[in-house]
Amino acid sequence: MSVSASLASNSRNRLACASCTRRKVKCSKTVPCSNCVRRGEQDACVLGSTETDSSTVVDSRASPQHRSPSDAARQLHVLHRRIAELEAEVQRATSGTALQHNPPPAEDEETSHEVLHLDPTLNPPESITHRTDVQNNRLDSSDAVMKDAASILEFLAWGRHKDPEYHSTVSPEATLTAGTASGDVWDKGSHVIESAIDPFGDCSQLSVIQLLLPSPQQVWQLVQYHEECLLWYHGSFFAPSFRDQLEAFYADYGGMIDRPGVNLQWVALLFSIMTGSLVCSPPATLQSWGFRDPERRTLSKRWFGAVLTCLNRADYTANLSILSCQAIATNTISAHLLGFSSSQSIQLAAAVRIAQSLGLHRLGSETTRNTIDREIGRRVWCQLCSQDWFGIPFSESYLINPLYSTSEPPLNCHDQDLLPLPVDTPTITSYCRFLREVASIIPQLQDDLMVRNTAYTRYEQVLAWDARLRTLVTTERPMFLSHVPIDPKWPCWIPWARRALAISSGHKIIMIHRSFLSDSFINPAFAFTRRTCLAASKTIIKEYKCVVDEDGPTLWIHQAFSVAASVILLLDVLHRDPNDRESAAHKQLAESVIAILHNHRNSMIAVRGIKLLGALLAEVSKVASTSGAPNQGRKRRRHDDTFGSSNADSPRNSRSGYKFDLPEFVKAFSVGTASSQSAGSSRSAGQHQSQMDVQVEDPQESDDVGEPGGEDAGHIIEPSLGYSFNTVGLDGANSFENLLYLVNHDCFSVP
C-alpha cells in the first residue's frame, strides 16, 4: 500500500476523538463526543491521531530525514486532518443544546485555534487535556515538588528537569516545545549565536572532525595533563596503553582519523580525554598551551560532540568495545560543565549495557584475561558503577544491581607494575576505589526506603545509612585522604582529592536526607536532618572557597555541589524569620558562592547556578521587604528551637504579606520566567564579596562535617535529636552524602 493510501485509510478508520484516544477511554464516536462535552472540552474534540501520528511528530522534529517520503503525501495527510476538523466544526454548529449547558472556557477558543492549524512539521501545541489534568492534580503536584524540593532545584541549576508530574512526559505534544527533542536545558541565546556564525554546520563528517584536532604537541600536552591531574578522579582508561596507542596514531597513520585501520572508538576516547583537559584545566595552563578563552568555548563543545560523532560512525552499539565505555565514562568530567548532562546520562546507560555484554561485571580473581586487560575492565566497571549509583537521586532507580556485579575492585597499584599495594598508599586508582565504596551505599538505601511503608520506618533507614556512610568516610578512608602531612613523594593530586572528598561527602549526606529535607524545615521531628544538611552545606561552601585559591583543575562537583549547598541555605532562610541571625549568615554564604561562580562563565553549571540562586535571593528579598519590625523575629526565637520561626504560624508568616510558594517557583524558573528575577540578586553578590569569610560552623546547632585539611578532619559533632529516633543507627556510627548525578543536553542538537 502506498504512503498516501495508508494515510488516507488511517484517517477514514479513526472514529475516536483525539482526547479519548490519549486518555485511552471509550469514545461515543460523535463530534463532540460525550466525554468531551462532560469535561467542557467541546471545542477541542476532533477526530484523533493515533500513536503513529505522535511518533511522526517526534520523528519529524528530532530527525528531518525521517519525515514523510514526499511533500505530496505530507500535504495529503494535513488535508485529511483538516477535513476531519471542518466536519467537527459543522457538527458543533448543530449541537447548540449541548454547548448551552456546557459553555467552553475562554481559553479553549485559543487552544481550538491552535489545533486547527496543527502541522506535523511545526511545533505541536500544548495538549488541552494535559492542561486540564494539571489543574485537577495541582495539589498532588505541589506535594511532589515540596517533597523533593532540594533535588529539583539542584537539577534545574545543572540544566536537568526532575518533573514530579509523570503525566506531562507521556505525551510528545506536551513535552516537545522547542526546536529540538533534546532533554537538556541550555543557555539558548549563546547557542543561537554560535549556530548563526558556524561555518561548518553539521560536524558529522570525518573531514570536519579532522579539522578539530590541534597540533600533535598540543594533543600530547592535553593528554599528559589529563593523566597527571584528572585521571585520579575517574580512572576510566589505562595511561600507559593509551600513550602507546597515541604514538602509533601519529607514527603509523600520520594523525589522520580517516585512514584505514584507525578505530573511531579510540578516536572518541582521544577527544574525550582532550575535552576533559580543555574544560577542567586552569586558564593559565591553557594559555601556556596556546588556547585562549573564545577558542576554548568553541573547541570544548565541538570536541565533546566529536566523541559522540565518532562513536556513532563506528556503530558502537553494534560493534561492542571497551573503548566506547572508556570514552563515555571519561566524558562525564566535562559533560556537566558544558551543559550536556542529560545526553551524558543516556550515553552512560548505553555504556553500562555494553560493559555488561563484554562481561566487565564478572571480572573475578579467576578470570583468564591477561592482567592489563582485566585491570582496565575493572577500572571502567568501577567508574560506571559509581556514576550509576550516584545518579539514583535523579531517577530514583539504578541500572547496575549490586547483586549481579561480581567484579572485584581495581587493584590499588601503580600503572608501571600493577603490583598490589596497601590501601594507605596513594595510587591512580585509590580515590576511585574509595568513592565506589561510598556509592555502593546509595542503592542499598534506595532499596530499604522502597520497602518501608511509613515515614517513621523510612526515617529510621535514613539514619541508619547516614551512620554507615559517616563511619565509612571518617574511619575507613585511606590515610592519605585524612589529616596527615603530605609526603613530597605523593602525587600532586592529593590535596585536590581531599577537597573533592570533603565536598562530595557533604553532598552525599544531603542526598541521603533528601526525602525528608523539605519536611525538616517545618516538622521538628526531622530536626536532625535540618541541622545535618545545613552543616554539610556550610562545609561544602567552605571547601569550595579553598578550592578557588588552589591552582588545581576545575571539577564539576565543585560548582554543582556548591550550588546545591546554597539552595539548602536559602531554603532555610525562607523558612526562618528574615531578621534571624542565621538568616543573614546563610544569605551571605549563598551570595559568596554567586560571586565565585561569576568567575566561571564558561561553565553552564555556573551560569544556571547564578540564575537559580539569584531567583531564590529575590524571593528572600520579597519576604524580608514584607516582614515586620527588625527586632521582632529575634525576640520571639528560642535559642534551642530552630523551628521557633519556621512553622506556618510563625511571626514571619503572620506578619508577612508575601509567602514563598516553592512549587510555583520551580515551575516559573523551569520555563525561564525566574531568570529576570536573578539579575538584581546576582548583581548584589558582588557587593557582598567582603562578607565571604562568614563563620560557617556553629557547633552548638549543627553537626559539622570536618575539613580533611584541618585538625578536626572527619570529626562530627553529634546534635541532640530530642526525639525517639535512634541517631546512632544500626552500627553505632553516623554519616555523610550521596552524589547527585547530573545532566544537560545533546551536543549537536544545535549545530
From TrEMBL:
Sequence segments annotated as region (Disordered): 49-73, 93-129, 624-657, 676-716
Classification via SMART domains: GAL4
Signal peptide: none
Pfam families: Zn_clus
Keywords: Nucleus
InterPro entries in the cross-refs: Sec_Metabolite_Reg, Zn2-C6_fun-type_DNA-bd_sf, Zn2Cys6_DnaBD
Record flagged with keyword Nucleus: yes
GO MF annotation terms: DNA-binding transcription factor activity, RNA polymerase II-specific; zinc ion binding
CDD domains in UniProt: fungal_TF_MHR, GAL4
GO cellular component: nucleus
Keyword Nucleus: yes
Gene3D superfamilies per record: Zn(2)-C6 fungal-type DNA-binding domain (4.10.240.10)
Biased composition (Acidic residues): 695-710
Low complexity compositional bias, start-end: 49-60, 676-691
Segments of skewed composition (Polar residues): 643-656
Zn(2)-C6 fungal-type domain residues: 16-47
Subcellular location: Nucleus
Name of the protein in question: C6 zinc finger domain-containing protein
Organism of this sequence: Colletotrichum chrysophilum
